Amino acid sequence: MSNHQIKRGVSLYSYQEEFFLQKMSLEDCIAAVAKTGATGIEILGEQSIWGFPKLTDAFVDQWFGWMDKYGVTPVCHDFMLDYTMTKGKYYSDDEALQSIIRDLKFAKRLGFKIMRAIVNITPELMEKAAPYAEEYDIKIGIEVHSPWHINSAWMARHWEVMEKTGSKYLGFVPDMGAFTKRLARVQTDRMIREGADPKIVEFVCEQHEKGIMAEYIIAQVSQMSKRRIDIAVAELTRHNTYYNPIALLQHIPRIFHIHAKFYEMLDDGTEYSIPYEDIIQILIKGGYNGYLSSEYEGNRHIQDVYEVDSVEQVRRQQEMFKRLLGEEVAPNKKSIVVQA
C-alpha cells in the first residue's frame, strides 16, 4: 500500500507533434492518457480546443462525455497572457485581468479546478486575480519555470503576495525542468546535427553536471569558439538549470500541481536529464497530494531525424511513476529506440 496521495496525469501538450500533424485527434489524446492508467487531464486551451476561448454546448457535452468514457478528470488549464494583442499597444493590468477572467470562465465550464499562470505574470496581477479565482473556485498557480526556481527573487515576490492576500487560491505550479541535472541528450545531439562542435558540446555538458555557473560556461566557450551555434550550446546552461529539489519541501502547502517535464525516457525506465527518483521521494516526504502531470518536450528535438512517438514516451514516464510511487508496473510491451 502506498504511503502518499500523489496522483498521475498527463498534459496533452505532450502529444503536440501528433496533434499538430493531425495524426491524433483530441479524443485520441485523451484515450492515450487513459491507457497509461493516469487519470488527470491538463490542456493548453488555445492549443487543444478549436475556437478557443469560445465553447459550444455541443462541445462541452462531448468533453464531459469523453471524461466519463475514459475515466479521467479535468485537472489543469494552462493559460497564456498575450500582452500585445493589439499592435503597438501593451495591455494594462486591468485589460490583462479581463483576459484572466476569460480563462477562468473557460476553465470553469470544462471542469478544471486549477489554472497554470505563465511565469511572466506579475505578482501584482496575481493579487488582482485572487478574488476572481475564489469566485470561480479555481486555483491559480504561477509556473515555476527554469531559469527561475522556487526560491528565486521573482517567486519570492509571488510568495509575498500569497501571504499578503491570505488567499488559498494562489500558489505554485513547479516545472521539473528546473531540476535538469544533465542537459537533454536529444537537445545537444540535435545541435551537433546542426553544426555544433562535438567537443564543445561535451565540455558544456560536463561543466553543467559539475554545477558550474552558466555565465562562466558561456564565457569559456566564447573564448573557444566564435561560432554562433557553439555559443548557443553554452547558453543551454542558462535556460536548463539545476536546483536542489529539496527546496520544494517548504512550499508543499502552496504547490497545486506539478509539470513533470521530460525530454527522453530511456529503455531502462529512467529519464536522462531529471532525477525523478530524488524528486518523488521529496514530494512523498512533504505530503504533496496533487498531480504529477507528464509534459514531454523531447519531440521538437528529434523530429528532424526520427518519427516522434510521444505516446510511447509518455507511457514510459508513467510506468516510471508507477514504480516510484509504489504502484504495480505493467510489463513493457513496446520498446522504441529514439536515440542513435
Automatic annotation (TrEMBL):
* GO molecular-function terms, A-Z: isomerase activity
Highest taxon above the source species: Bacteria
Residue ranges of domain Xylose isomerase-like TIM barrel in the record: 30-323
Keyword flag Acetylation: no
Q: Which UniProt keywords apply?
A: Isomerase
This protein's name: Sugar phosphate isomerase/epimerase
Q: Organism source for this protein?
A: Paraflavisolibacter caeni
